């Protein structure tokens, strides 16, 4: 599967952004669990959210609970991340990833396919 993330940008603290991740490939998008990860300068890549194959089970990192919402539209082969009440510490490159299993997992090394990343910068 090929993944294309988009929607990043520069926003003030308290603002919102919506990231999208468009998937394409031979295997149906609905057969993959999906994840959003982020990596800030000088830090390791970390899980933001992971969603199972049909979207009815979602994991969130504690740092984004109540502010971020992950969802997917399997009819459009697209994964989303709605980010509200953004904080400067949310500044990072955000990546979408596809996992060949159907249930959500939080370890980056388990994911098989990665998008190119989209920069999110939150100013204070």
By DSSP (H or I, 4+ residues per run), the number of helices equals 0
Radius of gyration: 13 Å
Q: What is the strand tally?
A: 11
The low-confidence runs, each spanning 5 or more residues with pLDDT under 50, are none
Characterize the main sheet: 7 strands, mixed
- Secondary structure class reads mainly beta
Q: What general form does the structure show?
A: globular
Amino-to-carboxy terminus distance: 37 Å
The share of residues in extended strands comes to over 45%
Helix proportion: under 10%
* Average pLDDT for all residues: 97
Question: What's the helix-strand series?
Answer: EEEEEEEEEEE
List the helices and strands and how they pair.
Layout: E1 2-6, E2 9-12, E3 17-24, E4 33-39, E5 46-51, E6 58-60, E7 68-73, E8 78-83, E9 92-99, E10 113-114, E11 118-123
Parallel strand pairs: 2-11
Antiparallel strand pairs: 1-3, 3-8, 4-5, 4-9, 5-6, 7-8, 9-10, 9-11
Give structural notes.
By secondary structure, the chain is mainly β. The protein is 0% helix and 49% strand. It has no helices and eleven strands. Strands 2, 4, 5, 6, 9, 10 and 11 form a seven-stranded mixed beta sheet that branches. Strand 4 and strand 5 form a beta hairpin. The relative contact order is 0.32.
């Amino acid at each position: 599967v090929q993944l294309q993330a988009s929607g990043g940008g520069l926003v003030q603290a308290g603002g919102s952004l919506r990231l999208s991740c468009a998937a394409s490939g031979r295997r149906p998008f609905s057969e993959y669990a999906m994840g959003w990860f982020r990596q800030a300068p000088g830090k390791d890549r970390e899980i933001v959210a992971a969603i199972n194959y049909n979207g009815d089970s979602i994991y969130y990192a504690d740092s984004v609970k109540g502010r971020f919402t992950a969802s997917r539209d399997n009819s459009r082969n697209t994964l989303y991340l709605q980010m509200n009440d953004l904080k400067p510490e949310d500044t990072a490159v955000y990546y979408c990833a596809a996992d060949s299993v159907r249930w959500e997992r939080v370890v980056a090394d388990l994911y098989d396919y990665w998008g190119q990343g989209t920069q999110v910068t939150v100013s204070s």
